[in-house]
Design a protein that fits this description.
The chain is built from six helices and eight strands. By secondary structure, the protein is of the alpha/beta class. The protein has a single domain, classed as Alpha/Beta hydrolase fold, catalytic domain (Rossmann fold, 3-Layer(aba) Sandwich). Strands 1-2-4-3-5-6-7-8 form an eight-stranded mixed beta sheet, with helices on both faces. The longest helix is centred in the last third of the chain and has 19 residues.
């Protein structure tokens, strides 16, 4: 497995970075790994590496590049949290989905990629992963504790989608969780897994809400989903 930074061309002009990790085999299906609000930091690079170790060509694009390229924050200081929320609040959602579409198509064309593409995202990235299932041509998507999903429940879901939901998520009230279940439980393209007692970011290694058991279960379900739909 090896990791490097590559350049992705935006559909409306400009370029942005993507951290690409390639499996030892040199190829496989592709996975777009969508960052939290902290940028393409060490945590996200490690997650991207882990998908390469599982046999996928994985890429984590810098979705904050339109505001400030190269953001790499941690969740360890109040200043970094403040900057992260500033970036979140200034984020252009539609442009972000467009950039993820460009990332997926760039990955699809890389030597070694099978042509099948999945997406997996966390927090803000979880919201964006949901939107890749409604607005792009990805073949499968996984959302970890996606925020503000209730704003998109009227969008037709085109790709098989997994939602990992923390029942005690401080950023997704129980009323919203119930709304998500009501809207999507009967959709045969959607699988929702509730992690009872867990808070937001239960799969972020080193975070205050990290839970190894839940993180392991979610990863097993994610990899099974990708194996079924990406090969």
């Amino acid at each position: 497995m090896s990791g490097k930074e590559i350049i992705i061309k935006a559909a409306d002009g400009g370029e942005f970075m993507g951290y690409l990790a390639t499996p030892e085999s040199g190829g496989g299906p592709g996975v777009v790994v969508i960052q939290e609000i902290f940028g393409v930091n060490d945590v996200m690079r490690g997650i991207t590496d882990s998908y390469a170790e599982a046999g996928y060509m994985a890429i984590c694009p810098d979705i904050f590049w339109r505001q400030e390229p190269g953001i790499q924050l941690s969740d360890q200081t109040e200043e970094e949290w403040a900057r992260a929320f500033e970036l979140f609040n200034g984020f252009d959602l539609d442009k972000g989905v467009q950039d993820l579409d460009s990332t997926a198509e760039t990955l699809r064309e890389l030597d070694g990629c099978s042509g099948k593409i999945g997406s997996v995202g966390f927090c803000l990235g979880g919201r964006l992963a949901y939107l890749t299932a409604t607005r792009t041509k990805v073949d499968a998507a996984v959302s970890y504790y996606g925020v503000m999903l209730v704003e998109h429940l009227d969008e037709p879901i085109n790709a098989p989608l997994v939602l990992h939901v923390a029942t005690e998520d401080e950023f997704v009230p129980k009323e919203q969780q119930a709304e998500i279940h009501t809207a999507l439980d009967g959709n045969d393209k959607v699988s929702i897994f509730d992690y009872v007692g867990q808070d937001h970011a239960f799969a972020r290694a080193g975070g205050k809400h990290f839970d190894q058991g839940s993180a392991d279960s979610a990863r097993e379900r994610t990899l099974a989903h990708f194996k079924a739909h990406l090969g």
